[in-house]
Amino acid sequence: MADTPTRALVVDDETDVQFLFTQKFRREVRKGLLEFVFATSGEEALEKLRTGEAADVVVVLSDINMPGMSGLDLLAEITREFPDVEVYMVTAYDDNQLESTALQGGARGYLTKPIDFGTLKGEVFGIEAA
């Protein structure tokens, strides 16, 4: 068991995302391996990072297409203000140009929806699937 859980910030304007992550990672959360903070917009995510509500977050999973601040705009702000935080972009669009833009902008990875949670556990969080 980890001494402290890996904290991740999940940013998505779809309301079911929090429930989905809570369900898919319930064992890891219960074991103290992971802890999630949720935001429904890029602006809210930045506020949580800046005010400390999302302190110690090491990974951000952000949707790209959101009202207001886009995920790519959020990526630019996070890489500038919080360079040690890894950012993964999540989108429903499997678009090579968008993926290239995200990776060139500093994203650690590009994930398409529907999310493969087994891959997410292994590649992003380093947790072997049960």
From TrEMBL:
Assigned keywords, A-Z: Phosphoprotein
Modified residues (4-aspartylphosphate): 63
Gene3D superfamilies: 3.40.50.2300
Any one of the GO BP annotations: phosphorelay signal transduction system
Phosphoprotein recorded as keyword: yes
Keyword Phosphoprotein: yes
Response regulatory domain residues: 7-128
Descriptive protein name: Response regulator
